[in-house]
Write a structure and sequence with these properties.
It is a single chain. This protein folds into 2 domains: 201 residues, 3-Layer(aba) Sandwich (Rossmann fold), CATH 3.40.50.300; 71 residues. By secondary structure, the protein is an alpha/beta fold. The radius of gyration is 22 Å and the shape is globular. The strands form 3 sheets. It has a 6-stranded mixed β-sheet, with helices on both faces. It has a 4-stranded antiparallel β-sheet with strand order 2-1-4-5, with helices on one face. It has a 4-stranded antiparallel β-sheet with strand order 12-13-11-14, with helices on both faces. It starts with a strand and ends in a 12-residue tail after the last helix. The mean pLDDT is 93. It binds adenosine-5'-triphosphate. Adenosine-5'-triphosphate binds next to helix 1. This is ABC transporter-like protein. One of its GO terms (molecular function) is ATP binding. Keywords: ATP-binding, Nucleotide-binding. InterPro entries: AAA+_ATPase (IPR003593), ABC_transporter-like_ATP-bd (IPR003439), P-loop_NTPase (IPR027417).
């Protein structure tokens, strides 16, 4: 049972604070969605976790051991990202061989199937791959190397819709055949919403949400009805956004509803992860729709 712990990580580039006191625990066999707007610090965090980038403060540990310069712990993680670790002149078959010896194993059976399903020409050189196939090749490495922690930074970059669907279904299959921990950084929230078990939202270098998806969704309430009734019903609740269509108002509440009585004119339902993300990271100061306060 391995646990990855990120404690008090801060990172600046010059005077720009990119990560501020990040504390996260990644448990065994969970699939985490790492969400955040452009520039929120997701890639920087993943590169710090895998020791490709140095933090100014804090530490990253696997099973209580610092991962920095620690080959046995670093060998438990694979980061698939836009940054290319492989030289353009290397053949894909050679990269697989080198990775296999570096990580001490490779699931050739799965790789052969994925290569066929995605239509990847394995005899090419890395530098000749199109953007989509560059991602596909790195995804195959990520799924086939024997690591406990698979970190995917924008994994479906450049993949067409068919290949994205294929990837998500292969990810679920691979996870159920061989449960391990995945951290998936993505902007395609709707596409991963049914795959991830936990959601982490970074906003300007800080963690603003870190919860099981189930718990998050249970706290998302949309309250729809005549404006006056909706405002009255949601008074004092954590309203994080609203919409108006004519006289009908939707207030979006994040949090528990107390036992207040729901008027007949007002309807309650749940809203999705993407809408929550937009409200939490949008213009509402501190995630609260101040107009309703
Ligand atoms: N090597 C670097 N030197 C200077 N600034 C950097 C460097 N790497 C990242 N940054 C800055 O750090 C901030 C966070 O970047 P990062 O790539 O981690 O964000 P992100 O959440 O992954 O964004 P995106 O979703 O757009 O890929 C950005 O403002 C970026 O310009």
């Amino acid at each position: 049972m391995s646990i990855l712990e990120v404690s008090h990580i801060s990172k600046s580039f010059g005077s720009k604070h990119v990560l501020s006191d990040i504390n996260l625990t990644f448990e065994e066999n969970k699939i985490y969605g790492l969400l955040g707007r452009n520039g929120a610090g997701k890639s920087t965090l993943l590169s710090v976790i895998t020791d490709r980038n140095f933090a100014n403060n804090g530490e990253v540990k696997i099973d209580s051991e610092d991962v920095r310069d620690n080959d046995s712990k670093l060998g438990m993680m694979y980061l698939m990202s836009e940054v290319n670790l492989y030289s353009n002149g290397s053949k894909l078959t050679q990269i697989i061989k080198d990775s296999e010896s570096l990580y001490g194993g490779f699931n050739h059976e799965l790789a052969d199937r994925l290569i066929k399903e995605f239509g990847l020409d394995i005899n090419q050189k890395f530098g000749k791959l199109s953007t989509g196939y560059n991602s596909i090749f790195k995804l195959i490495l990520a799924l086939c190397l024997p690591v406990q922690f698979v970190l995917l930074d924008e994994p479906v970059l450049g993949l067409d819709a068919n290949h994205r669907e294929l990837f998500y279904s292969e990810l679920i299959q691979s996870y159920s055949d061989n449960p391990r921990t995945f951290i998936i950084s993505t902007h395609l929230i709707e596409e991963v919403a049914n795959i991830i078990s936990d959601v982490i939202v970074l906003d300007q270098g800080r963690v603003i949400l870190n919860q099981p998806v189930e718990d998050v969704l249970a706290k998302n309430h949309s309250v729809v009805g005549p404006e006056k009734d909706v405002k009255q019903y949601t008074k004092g609740l954590n309203v994080i956004g609203h919409d108006m269509i004519g006289n009908i108002r939707a207030n979006y509440v994040y949090g528990d509803l107390d036992d207040r009585v729901l008027p007949d004119t007002v309807q309650l339902s749940n809203f999705d992860l993407q809408k929550l993300f937009i409200f939490l990271t949008n213009q509402y100061e501190g995630g609260t729709d101040n107009e309703d306060k």
